[in-house]
Fold:
Amino acid sequence: MPALDDLSRRRFASSLALAGSMLALSPLNAQPKIEKTKLVVTVDSKSALSYLPLTIAEQLGFFRAEGMDVQISDFADAARASAAVVSGAADVCSGMFERTLYLQSKNQMFQAFVLQGRTPQLALGVSTRNLPGYTRIADLRGKKIGVAALDSMASMMTHRYLMRGGLNAADVSFVQLGSWVHALAAVRTGQIDALCNTDPAMTMLEQKGEVRIIQDTRTLKGTSDLFGGSMPSACLYAASDFVQKNPNTCQALANAMVHSLKWLQTAGPSDMINTVPESYLLGDRALYLAAFNKTRESISPDGMMPDDGPSIALAAFGQYDATLRLARLNASKTYTNEFARRAKQRFLA
Structure:
C-alpha cells in the first residue's frame, strides 16, 4: 500500500510539472511583442463618419489597451494622407480601400488589414438652388459636380451613376473641393450644381433643403443597386512590407479597431454624444445623430473584407480609370483578413 501511495505521489508531481511547463509554453498566455509601439496613422477628414471607428478607438483608449501609442495625423485629402505613408513619414493610413488599387497601379504594393466601412458611405445630391427642376441623369450634362478629390471614390461613384443615364465623366466638370467644409460653402454659394460627399455634411445639406439626394451608398441596398454587390470603403492599410515585418503591430491595430466596431454596434445616442469630440457635432447634436443613423448599417460589424468586395471595387474603378483597367492589377493582394479574423474571434464580433 505505501508503494502505491509513493507511485501516486510521483505521478501527481509529474503531472503538475508537465502542466506547468505546458502553461509556460502556451502562446495563449504570452502577449506577442509588438514590433512598433509608437505609430503615426494618417487620415483624410477625420471628423467624417466614414472614419468614426478610428475616432472611437482613439477616444475610448482601445489603442492604449493594446499597448500602442498611436498619433493620428489629419490631412485635407486622401492623396496627401496616403503620400505620407508612401514616403515613410507615417506608418499606416486610415483611408478608402480603392487607394490600395491606385497605388498598386503605380507599382506600390499596399495592403488593407482591417475594414471600417462596407459601403462607400457617400451620397450624391443635386443643388436645389442651381437645379431645382432636376428629373433625370441627363440633366447633369455640362454641370459642375463637387468631389473631395478627382481620383476618389466620390468621383468613381458619380461616374457610375452618370453611366446609368448614358453620360460619362467627360460630360460633366468635376470640381475638387477637399474638406467637407469647402463642400458646404461650394453648395451654398452656387459654385457647384451637385455634390458627392460623406456625412455629416450630406445630412446637414439634406435637412436644410439645400440638396436633393439622387444616389445613396450610405446603405447596403443603395450600394448593391449601384455596384452589384459589396463595395468596401474605409480601412486601415499599410505597405505590404510593413504588414509582413510587423504582424504583431498590425494585429494590435486590428484588435483595437474591431473592438471599436463592436462597440458601435450597440452604442446609443448618449454613448455617441459623450464619446465623439464636441467639434465633430457641428453645434447640432440631433443632426450628428441623424447622420450617424443614416450610415450605421454601413459600418463593418467585424473588420472583415467581404469576399466580393475587392473584385467589385477593381471592376468599378476600371470603368472609371482606363489606366487601372490596363494595369493588370491583382485585387487579392490588396487585402488580408488574417488579422481581422483573429480580432473577431477575440471580441466575438
In short: The CA atoms of residues 20 and 26 lie 10 Å apart. The mean pLDDT is 90. The chain has two domains: 38-119+231-347, 122-216. The longest strand covers residues 38-44.
